[in-house]
Amino acid sequence: MGARQVVRRDWRLKTGTEIYFLYDQTTALYGANRNMNVVVRSTLPLETLARVVREQVNAMDRSLPIVRLRTMDDVFADSVARQRFLAQLLVIFATLALALAAVGTYGVLSYLVTERQREIGIRMALGANRTNVLSLVLRQGLATTVIGLVIGVAGAVGLTRLATSLLFEVKPTDPLTFGAVAGVITLVALAACVVPARRATKVDPIVALREE
């Protein structure tokens, strides 16, 4: 069995050279060891296998206690319990951060478009149609969104090094995750631009000119 097939203590550590001894040799070298971990490969369910193991151990020595019987899935789950808990906390905080970012993006862009309501009315009074106005607002709003996304992605890439230890079979710079977040923010930005812009295009241009 090669060393690459054996993981001891921490699964995140690289495997090294392993030397196997008979139990009698281990006792002679290091003294009597009262604890022993035994791995059993079987297709039987844990309940059935546990009864068989207890019977075999009792047949050899009734004084030998069996402390705990676990499946390998349970062993692995216990070994990653801390990382899984931290990852769940990270997901919760990341979701809250995304929600706050979406609300903030919508609020800022919606306010900026609403502030230009008179300007939009004047443009329509001078001959601009709704399509022209919406295109102008979307271009400017998406330009601001793209600048924010570039800055945000750059900062996220720099901070992903802190979360590397919490990831398993996922790259810190996972393009799917970054793409999904950017897509959500972009959709929010579109809504933040279109909704107030459509409202502004319904303003009577004459009223907008009189207010000026």
What's this entry about, in short?
By secondary structure, the protein is mainly alpha-helical.
Question: Explain this structure to me?
Answer:
The protein is built from eight helices and no strands. The model has no long low-confidence stretch (mean pLDDT 77). The protein has helices at 23-30, 46-60, 72-79, 81-115, 117-125, 130-159, 175-201, 205-211. The radius of gyration is 32 Å and the shape is rod-shaped. Helices cover 66% and strands 0% of the residues. α4 runs parallel beside α7. By secondary structure, it is an all-alpha fold. It starts with 22 loop residues before the first helix and ends with a helix. The chain has two domains: 3-78, no CATH class; 81-211, no CATH class.
Q: Could you give the topology of this structure?
A:
Blueprint: H1 23-30, H2 46-60, H3 72-79, H4 81-115, H5 117-125, H6 130-159, H7 175-201, H8 205-211
Helix pairs in contact: 4-7, 5-7, 5-8, 6-7
Largest sheet: none
Domains (count) = 2
Give the overall form: rod-shaped
Total helices: the number is 8
Range of strand content = under 5%
Radius of gyration: 32 Å
Q: Could you tell me the mean pLDDT?
A: 77
Indicate the percent of residues in helices: 55-70%
How far apart, in Å, are the first and last alpha carbons? 85 Å
**Which ranges are low-confidence, i.e. pLDDT below 50, for 5 or more consecutive residues?**
none
Tell me the total number of β-strands. Answer: 0
Query: SSE order in H/E notation?
Result: HHHHHHHH
Question: Structural class of the helices, strands and pairings?
Answer: mainly alpha
